[in-house]
């Protein structure tokens, strides 16, 4: 059986983070493993607490999984600090992980910081060059590019090109935040070509965990041997259905539906 690993934060509310990733791996028929970088106390109303784990704890989890079970792909999500990013990058290098999907998680929808401000430099310089695919949304791409505003599809293409030049094999800029567009368009740049992935824009507030789910799906498909454009295409279909049938649980922003 193909295997995928997530190195990310736990969402006690079950909609994002490690929980979303493992549900996605299950739905995409790969065996999922995890290393938890931070615990969050969280529900549909927001993040009530963030508890980063020690370097020793994260290292022990990664070693335990990769020295025995191994993996066909890894995705990283919430890494929280520069020191955790450095550790994870060293480990991915040590185990020669080459199907690496990096979701550069920075801020939760409710505004809680999931990556310390000063860690953006470490993300850019240490982790991004190891990536097969990096999946920023528009605010994250803007932060990686020193505060650039990205407001059109052309600017998304330029941003994808500029982030790809930082070292990863490919970059998908997610257009969900581009409110000016009637459709939801994601732009992939693989170093040679641009690909546009277009879907209807679904009107719902229940979109918690979309980024986690999308990047986990790409990792699962890469684990199975799909190439990058195919993996992104499948992930776009998967996340569109997950948003269309998203769940009205709790009193706030509900999660996407992993089994839609
Ligand atoms: N909590 C954790 C642990 C996450 O990894 C993420 C995803 O990026 C979030 C929360 C944010 O979820 P959202 O912004 O989709 O509500």
Automatic annotation (TrEMBL):
For this protein's source organism, the top of the classification is: Bacteria, Bacillati, Bacillota, Bacilli, Bacillales
**This protein's UniProt keywords:** ATP-binding, Kinase, Nucleotide-binding, Thiamine biosynthesis, Transferase
Q: Which SUPFAM superfamilies match?
A: Ribokinase-like (SSF53613)
Q: Name one GO molecular function term.
A: ATP binding
Protein's recorded name: Hydroxymethylpyrimidine/phosphomethylpyrimidine kinase
GO cellular component terms?
cytosol
Which family, according to the similarity comment? Belongs to the ThiD family.
Question: What are the residue boundaries of the Pyridoxamine kinase/Phosphomethylpyrimidine kinase domain, all occurrences included?
Answer: 11-257
Q: Which InterPro entries match?
A: HMP/HMP-P_kinase_dom (IPR004399), PM/HMP-P_kinase-1 (IPR013749), Ribokinase-like (IPR029056)
Q: State the source organism's domain of life.
A: Bacteria
Tell me the Gene3D superfamilies matching this sequence: 3.40.1190.20
Q: Pathway it acts in?
A: Cofactor biosynthesis; thiamine diphosphate biosynthesis; 4-amino-2-methyl-5-diphosphomethylpyrimidine from 5-amino-1-(5-phospho-D-ribosyl)imidazole: step 2/3; Cofactor biosynthesis; thiamine diphosphate biosynthesis; 4-amino-2-methyl-5-diphosphomethylpyrimidine from 5-amino-1-(5-phospho-D-ribosyl)imidazole: step 3/3
For this protein, what is the EC number?
2.7.1.49, 2.7.4.7
Enzyme kind, highest EC tier = transferase
User: Which reactions is this enzyme annotated as catalysing?
Assistant: 4-amino-5-hydroxymethyl-2-methylpyrimidine + ATP = 4-amino-2-methyl-5-(phosphooxymethyl)pyrimidine + ADP + H(+); 4-amino-2-methyl-5-(phosphooxymethyl)pyrimidine + ATP = 4-amino-2-methyl-5-(diphosphooxymethyl)pyrimidine + ADP
Q: Name one GO biological process term.
A: thiamine biosynthetic process
